[in-house]
């Protein structure tokens, strides 16, 4: 499943590159099946062009055409390019763009089901190369605030949005006290002068033991200190722990580098 997703995303990379190209130069022709909007020639700066594209990305899409939306070349490819753009260039208009997209998609039940599935597939799967909790949180908040989302769903989406938004890469990791395996008590702020790998685990979790054994066979650089931390209810919310083990990589000053990564992603970070 993991290899298949990576292979599929690799095949989509060319189209993603084309969308990024739209942000930098004038659009003179449509070369893909997805109906990208034409960016005005008067917009010269890449960020300005990206802002326009994000705000008008879905203008030419008929969300009632379920045949097109369910095709990989149109619906799925268009969505993959959109979340890639939103993650790269959404600092100015991200929330507004997410609202426009969700308002359009959620007004048509078949489109809603289609994109709800794609959002989870590409943004909530640890093995997805496009996983981006910042983008995920934007879309979840837009769904929670949409008029077609009922009260029960609204609470669920808001909770998921809060989890996605905590301890994002680039943020300072929230501090907490923990008891080490030797019984001593510490806080992660004590280790702010060095890089940290936080390994959240459950002693009864068989997968935790499997992953830990794998990590011992693939050692990290000597200057990275690994902290093994038993999960509890407080940390489950504070660090968005959905399953164990959960792994974070912190740079010096406790800046989050990787959030909830796989052990393979952790090791790859140092190659």
TrEMBL record:
SUPFAM superfamilies: Thioredoxin-like (SSF52833). Gene3D superfamilies: Glutaredoxin. PROSITE patterns: THIOREDOXIN_2. Residues 167-271 form the Thioredoxin domain. Residues 1-29 form the signal peptide. This is DUF5106 domain-containing protein. Keywords: Signal. Pfam families: DUF5106. It comes from Hallella mizrahii.
């Amino acid at each position: 499943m993991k290899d298949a997703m990576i292979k599929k995303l690799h095949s989509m990379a060319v189209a993603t590159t084309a969308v990024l190209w739209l942000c930098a130069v004038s659009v003179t022709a449509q070369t893909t099946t997805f109906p990208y909007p034409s960016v005005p020639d008067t917009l010269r700066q890449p960020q300005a062009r990206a802002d326009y594209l994000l705000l008008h990305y879905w203008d030419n899409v008929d969300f009632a055409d379920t045949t097109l939306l369910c095709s990989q070349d149109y619906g799925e490819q268009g969505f993959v390019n959109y979340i890639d753009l939103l993650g790269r260039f959404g600092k100015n208009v991200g929330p507004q763009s997410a609202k426009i997209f969700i308002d359009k998609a959620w007004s048509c039940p078949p489109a809603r089901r289609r994109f709800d599935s794609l959002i989870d597939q590409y943004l909530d799967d640890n093995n997805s190369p496009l996983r981006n909790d910042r983008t995920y949180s934007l879309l979840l908040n837009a769904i929670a605030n949409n008029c077609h989302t009922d009260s029960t769903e609204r609470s669920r989406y808001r909770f998921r949005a809060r989890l996605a938004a905590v301890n994002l890469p680039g943020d300072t990791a929230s501090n907490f006290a923990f008891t080490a395996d030797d019984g001593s008590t510490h806080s992660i702020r004590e280790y702010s002068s060095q890089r940290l790998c936080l390994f959240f685990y459950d002693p009864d979790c068989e997968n935790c033991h499997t992953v830990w054994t794998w990590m011992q066979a693939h050692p990290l650089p000597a200057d990275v200190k690994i902290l093994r931390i038993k999960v509890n209810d407080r940390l489950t919310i504070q660090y968005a722990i959905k399953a164990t083990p959960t792994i974070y990589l912190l740079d010096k000053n406790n800046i989050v580098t990787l959030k909830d990564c796989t052990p393979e992603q952790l090791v790859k970070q140092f190659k």
